[in-house]
Design a protein that fits this description.
The protein has 193 residues and is an alpha/beta fold. 25% of the residues lie in helices and 23% in strands. The model has no long low-confidence stretch (mean pLDDT 96).
Length: 193
Amino acid sequence: MSNALIIVDVQKDFCEGGSLAVAGGAGVAAGISRLLAAEPDRWDHVVATKDYHIDPGTHFADAPDYVSTWPRHCVVGTPGSEFHPELATDRIEAIFHKGEYAAAYSGFEGQADDGEGLADWLRRRGVARVDVVGIATDHCVRATALDAAREGFATTVLLDLTAAVAPDTTDVALRAFEGAGITTIGAPVIKAA
């Protein structure tokens, strides 16, 4: 059985200078790249997810509540939807786009260009264990890791390579990880309350 790294939403709009920036996002991008370079044989497969909005309905709002509505971000065809330049993409075998026409937080809601979902893609390659990194700890990383565990993958979140939106929602995410039997290593990058 093999293992995989899932890189969640390390996109320009979620990093400093982006429309929905998370403090420490650029550092997470660089940290993932350093780890991939330092340990090239650690994962058999590397995949990534992207928020990929065309018209996600009420997911965008002019006066967002930052819980279920957000400023415009990661719109298809805009620079903000691209991977952050500090993220090395040469090892990424497949990209799973999510949220074209509705809110989507988990990478397991996304599809590759050929329409295949993440769970099926991993299973076809005999993946049993996944490590999850990316942005944001308390939203898309949380949803992706929880779905990975629900799909039967042994799941670890490398928290040092995640950036979080807020302390309270991060606490909720960490409790959810524990409750789902997800292993966590390190601590997320998180701005002060």
